[in-house]
Fold this sequence. Notes:
Elements: E1 2-8, H1 23-29, E2 37-39, E3 42-50, E4 57-62, E5 68-70, E6 81-83, E7 89-95, E8 102-108, E9 115-116, E10 125-131, E11 137-144, E12 148-155, E13 161-166, E14 170-175, E15 182-186, E16 196-200, E17 206-210, E18 222-227, E19 235-240, E20 247-252, E21 258-260, E22 268-273, E23 279-286, E24 289-296, E25 301-305, E26 311-317, E27 323-328, E28 335-338, E29 343-345, E30 359-365, E31 368-375, E32 384-390, H2 404-411, E33 415-420, H3 429-433, H4 441-456, E34 460-470, H5 472-483, E35 490-494, H6 500-506, H7 509-519, H8 527-533, E36 546-551, H9 559-571, E37 576-581, H10 590-607
Helix pairs in contact: 1-2
Amino acid sequence: MSESNTPSTPxxxxxxxxxxxxxxxxxFRAPRVSLPDWAEDAPDRSLFVSNATGTYELYAxxxxxxxxxxxxxxxxxxxxxxxxxxxxxxxxxxxKDGDEFGIWRRQPFAGGEAEAAVPGLDASYPAGLxxxxxxxxxVVGRSTDEDGTTIHLARRGEEPVEIYRHRESAGVGxxxxxxxxxxxxxxxxxxxxHAALRVLRPDGRAVAELDDTxxxxxxxxxxxxxxxxxxxxxxxxxxxxxxxxxEPLVWDVATGEQTDLDLDLPGDVGAEWYPDGSALLxxxxxxxxxxxxxxxxxxxxxxxxxxxxxxxxxxxxRPDGSVEYLWxxxxxxxxxxxxxxxxxxxxPGLTCPPSVEVExxxxxxxxxxxxxxxxxxxxxxxxxxxxFDLHGGxxxxxxxxxxxxxxAWVDQGYAVIRVNYRGSTGYGRAWTDALKHRVGLIELExxxxxxxxxxxxGLADPDRLVLTGGSWGGYLxxxxxxxxPDAWTVGIAVVPVADYVTAYHDEMxxxxxxxxxLLGGTPEEVxxxxxxxxxxxxxxxxKAPVYISAGVNDPRCPIRQIDNYVKRLEAxxxxxxxxxxxxxxxxxxxDERIKQLRLEMDFAKRNLPGA
Length: 611
C-alpha cells in the first residue's frame, strides 16, 4: 500500500521539451479551445475557454481586430463564464480551489480589474445566470444547503431582490429578449430528473406554467432551450420527452399555444434559435454520433447541414447565417469549424496527435441492447489487456468524440471499451430512467454483459481487465470491484462516490435532490437502498488492487466519504493507493491531469500480470 496524504499543488505549465514526449502527453498539452460564445448585440465579440497557458481559462476575442486576451488567471483555472449581450462585460464564477461555492465577478471585455458582479449576494453554488440587454440587469440563481434554491433579480446600483425560493432544486433557464419574462426550471414536485417550467415577471409573479410530470403515469421532463431573440416575442423554445426522447417544441407563454415540431428523427433532438427568430438550429444525437439541421419555422422544412462523421459537441448560428460548431471524432482532435468554410479558431503551438477510430458493438443485456464503443491499437489482435472506462453522469453518454484519456491507454497497448449502460442519455427516456432504486447495480449488470461478450469474442484477456472511470464512473468502479470481485483485475476510481450515505450528507444540495430521486428518499427513509448501492457495503469483498484519486475540495464526491472507504481497505490490509490533489471535482490544470493519468497507468502496469 502507498498513499499520498499531502495534496499536490497545481500550477501553470512551463514550456516543455516535446522532442521525446509521448503522443499521449502531447494530446493533453496541445492547445484546445471551446466553441466561442458571442455577444448578441455585438457579435464580433466572443468568449472561449482554452488551455493555452497550461490551465483552462477564459479568453476574450475581438473578431474585428483578431486580438485574443486571457481574461482570467487563477491557480485552479476557470471555465464558467458568460459574455453580456452588449459585449461590454465578461462574467465569471469565482470559487475557492474548485469547490464550486463562490460568487459571480465581472470585468470589462477590453480588460481591467474584476469586481463583484452582484454586491449583496453571499457565496453559493450557482443555479443559472441570465443577463439582460440593458447592460445593468441580471437574473442570478443560487443554491445553498440552508436555503435550497433562490433566484434574484439584480440591477446595478440597487439591492438584489429575491423573486423565487424553494427547498428543491431549480435554476434560471433564460431571460426574454426584452427582459420582461424569466423562464425557470424547477423540481418542486420532488423529481430532480424531470423538471417542470415556470415563467415569471421580473417582480416574481408567475405568468405561465408547464409541467409534464402531472396527469399521467409516465415521468416526463421539460427543459428551457431559449426565448425567441426578438423584442416582444413571447415564444419559448423548450425540450420535452412526450414521445420517449428529447425533442423541441415552441411554447408561446402568452397564449399557451404549443407548436410541436415532430421532426421524425430517431435520437435525442436539441435546438436553438437562429438570430432572427425565423429558424432553428437543430442538433440530433443518435447512437453516439450527431448531426446538424436547419429547421425553417414558416415552411417547416428540415435541411441537413453537412458535418463530418463524428460528434458535434456544440453549435451556434451566427447573424450572417453561417453555423459554427465544435467537432471531433475518436480518431481526430476537436476543431471549431464554420459552414462558411475553414477552421474558426486554430490555436498555435503543439499539434494534437490523432488516435484510432472507434468501433461499435451491440451486446444483448438484461435490459435490452447495450451500445459499447471500442478502441484498440492498430493491427492488434486479442486477447488484449482491456480497460473498461465508465462515463460519469450517470445522465451522460460516451460518443464517437476525441478523448485524450482513452487514447493514452490505447497507446500503451490496451483495448478500451466504453459502455453506454442503462442510465445513459442518447438512447431514449426509458433507457435513461431505468436505474432508479437499484442505483449502480443496474448499470453494472450492463457492464458485466459487455465484459462477458468481450472475453468470449477473444477481444479481452480475462486476467488483465481494468475497471475505471471518473465521478459516477468512479462510483461504478468501486461498486463493481466489490459486487463483482472475480471479474476485474484492477480498479482505478477517480473522484468516486465510495460511501453513499456519507456522500449524501456532505454533497451539494442539488445532488442530494438527485439522490433522493434516484433512490426514492433519504438514507434515513430508505436505508436498505443506500446500503445496497454503496461501495462501502462491499469493501471487504474487494480482491483487486484499488487506486483512488480525489480532490480535497470536491463538493460532488466529498473527501470524507472516500476516507471512510480507504480506512476499511487499510483495516484489512487490502492492496490500494490513494492520491489526493488540491482541487475539486477534477482538475483544470494540464500538468495535474498528466500526472494523474501517469499514476493511473503506472498502477495498472504494476498490478496486471505480464503488463
